[in-house]
Structure formats: C-alpha cells, structure tokens
Amino acid sequence: MEGAGGIFWIIVIALFGGLLIRNFMRGQHTADENQFSQAGVSVLFADGKVVIKNKEFDVNKIQSIRTEKVTFKNRTRSVCYIDIDDFDKPLHKVEFAYANQASEFSNRLALAIKKAGGPALS
Questions:
Q1: Contacts 24+ apart (CB under 8 A), 38-46
Q2: Per-residue confidence in pLDDT tens, the chain, 122 aa
C-alpha cells in the first residue's frame, strides 16, 4: 500500500510542476520578421492572419483587445479579451497567471496586428 501512496504524491507533484511551467510559459513570447506568438495566439504578418487556438482569422476581423484584472482567493490574475467579427466565437479569452501579463500581451498583440495590415488597436 505504501507504493500506491508514493505514486500518488509523484503524480500530484508532476501535475503541480506542469501547471507552474504552463503558467510561466504563457508569459513568454516569440517574435521575428514573419510572426508573433504568445499564449496560444499567433499573428502571421505576411498572410495578414491571426491564429487563436488553431482557428484562423483575418487581422481586419479583430475589433478590439481589452484586459482585466481578476482577483480570486487573494490572488490577482489577468485576462485579455479579443473581440472578433465572427458569429461562431466572437469573444476569445486568454488568461495569465500574473497581474501585468495580459496588459503586456495586449500591447504586443496590437502591434503585431498593425504590422500584419490590420487595424490600429489601443
């Protein structure tokens, strides 16, 4: 029975470590002359496309980007909302573990959309 308890704790620690790594990586971005990518959102400059969770949109369909801080159990997180001219899913939510990450992400995303030929968003 001791072996099963040890395996349980190994699984719990591995899951917790995976969540920590995932939350840290959402704050990391990559950008080069061809694209911008962060938190599951990519902007393809030459194609003029935004890819959100494997769904592709024209950059001109992006209507607005807004951020919000959310406090839950004494912990402040941040959320970025991307409004898109799309009947299937007009609002996309990107969550971050830390309070300032959504704001930094939204600034980068607005710049990338503009670079891809889309509207100037603030």
A1: 38/105, 38/108, 38/109, 39/94, 39/96, 39/105, 40/94, 41/82, 41/92, 41/94, 41/105, 41/109, 43/109, 43/112, 43/113, 43/115, 43/116, 44/116, 45/112, 45/115, 45/116
A2: 456 677 777 777 777 666 555 545 555 788 899 999 999 999 999 999 999 988 999 999 999 999 999 887 888 889 999 999 999 999 999 988 888 889 999 999 999 999 999 999 86
